Amino acid sequence: MPSQKKSSTKKAKGVSKSSRSGLVFPVSRVGGSLRKGRYAKRVSTPAAVFLTAVMEYCTKELLTLSAKTAHKNKKQHNIKPRHICLAVREDEDLSQLLSQVTISGGGVMGGVHGAMLKKKKEPSGEKKEKKKGDKKKKEKKTKKASPTKSPKKSPKKTE
Question: Could you give phi then psi for residue 100, rounded to 5 degrees?
Answer without folding.
Answer: -95, 10
